[in-house]
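[job 4471] stage=fold_predict status=RUNNING
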Amino acid sequence: MNKVELVEAMAKETGLSKKDTEAALKAFLKVCETELSNGNPISLIGFGTFDISNRSERKGRNPLTGAEITIPASKSVKFKPGKALKEKVNK
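[job 4471] inference complete, writing structure tokens
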């Protein structure tokens, strides 16, 4: 499902216009980006939790040359599904 299909499905589910639904989705995504970039997790009870994971610097290899490279430390967004979502998906 892409963004257009998601907006259509949400509009149908809520009875809102596609324009209002897209605005709500954009606002949700903006708030998520802001909070996660500030290091704050987002917990949606029953759905799951978005959190930041820190990756330390590590050694790797360039697949073309085989030369050893240093992969810099970085942050990554992780999603942990909630119990209700797990149960729904596994039915």
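[job 4471] summary: DSSP finds three helices and five strands in the chain.
[job 4471] exit 0
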